Amino acid sequence: MSQHPITGIEIAGCGLALPSRSVSNFELINEKGYNSSDEWLRTKVGIASRYYSEWDETSPSRTLASKAAQEALRMAGLSKPYEIDVLRVGTWTSDMKTPGTANDVNSELGLKAGKVSDQNAACASFVYSINDTFNDFKVDDDIKTGLVIGTDILSRHTDFNDRDTAMLFGDGAGAVLLKRNENRPDAGLVAWHYETDSDLIPALYVDQNSGYIKMIGNLVLQKVVPLCVEVGSIVLKKAYENMKIEKDDIGMFILHQANIRIINMIAKRLNIPLEKMAITIDRHANTSSSSIPMALTEMVTDGKVKRGDPIMMLGFGAGVTVAGSVLIF
User: Fold this and answer.
1) Which of 76, 97, 118, 255 stands the most exposed, by the fewest C-beta atoms within 10 Å?
2) Strand partners, 24
3) Does the structure show a pLDDT above 90 at 163?
4) Is the peptide bond before 202 cis (omega within 30 degrees of 0)?
5) 3 state DSSP class of 135
């Protein structure tokens, strides 16, 4: 099925937010008495530290999401009263069962967005959310601005008695502000693709009773990488078909920060230079929906992503669900 790029819409701003408490591998291993080491976590998983929300915080998802959103709004040059038409939040760790985090942020920041919703596609939620928001612009000319947030508080769903998962996750939020801009007909969503293998649900899920993350690490590694390579290949092919953007034209590849081995394996199979792969897992660990927008924000802040640059996003996680897109920043 053919696609038509959704252009004239730019990422006008982006931002991230992290809890104040950074926990190093040494601290976590010593505190919990795990049979592991800092060296193993750094070399095999890519993690040196992660951030945890304090347990006495009543609404950590709303707090981080709102802070990230404010950073994105500030970069975009917007000030109160904010005029936001669409607000979509990728998350599976809302502070309440319902309504979702998007409603919380809408109220917290006084956005008064009309279309407000949460998107739960696990670690692929942000890519789903940004692709869907671009499509909102496509079908409704009245939409001028869209705020897309990825936020997850994984420390609340981590079983610290399970060493195999306890050291992998952290908390955080990232946001982007989409804005219609007729002066930038090049900017926007170039290509997108999704794949899901629901037979792999047992590989990674959150137990309904305990609320804890359950994972079969080797199965995730074996099955997710081929699916990511497939989606990545299709998205790159569509980017060329749609706007003649070749793989070498893409400035940065921003993948979900789940495991450094997964990132390196995907890079190798897609023949992508490692210097073009965004890496933030070392400081943030796996933050699910927020890892991609947080990584994008860091790449922009560091000058590695500039206006007009094509970028590729690839989210993957429980489901097993994979979502990819190529955008022009």
Assistant:
1) 97
2) 49
3) no
4) no
5) helix
Give the ranges where 201-319 is alpha helix by DSSP (H).
Answer: 217-243, 260-269, 281-284, 291-301
Alpha carbon distance 233, 56 (integer Å): 44
What is the identity of the amino acid at 284?
H
Distance, in Å, from the CA atom of 231 to the CA atom of 173, rounded to the nearest integer, reads: 25
Q: Is 30 a catalytic residue?
A: no
**Residue 14 bears catalytic tag:** no
pLDDT digit string (tens) for 83-133?
A: 999 999 999 999 888 889 999 999 999 998 999 999 999 999 999 999 999
Residue identified by tokens 């409704």 is 140
Catalytic residue among 157, 256, 259, 284: 256
Q: How many Cα atoms occupy the beta-carbon half-sphere of 318 within 13 Å?
A: 18
How much of the chain exceeds pLDDT 90, in percent? 83
Domains, the chain, ranges and CATH? 6-180 (3.40.47.10), 188-328 (3.40.47.10)
- The single residue of 25, 123, 228, 242 carrying the catalytic annotation is 123
Set 103, 242, 259, 286: catalytic member: 286
Please give the pLDDT value at position 220: 78
For residue 214, which phi and psi values (nearest 5 degrees)? -120, 135
Q: For residue 105, what is the enclosing H or E element?
A: helix 101-108
Residue identified by tokens 């669900």 is 321
Task: Give the number of other Cβ atoms within 10 Å of residue 115's Cβ.
Answer: 15
Count CB-CB contacts under 10 A for residue 227.
Answer: 18
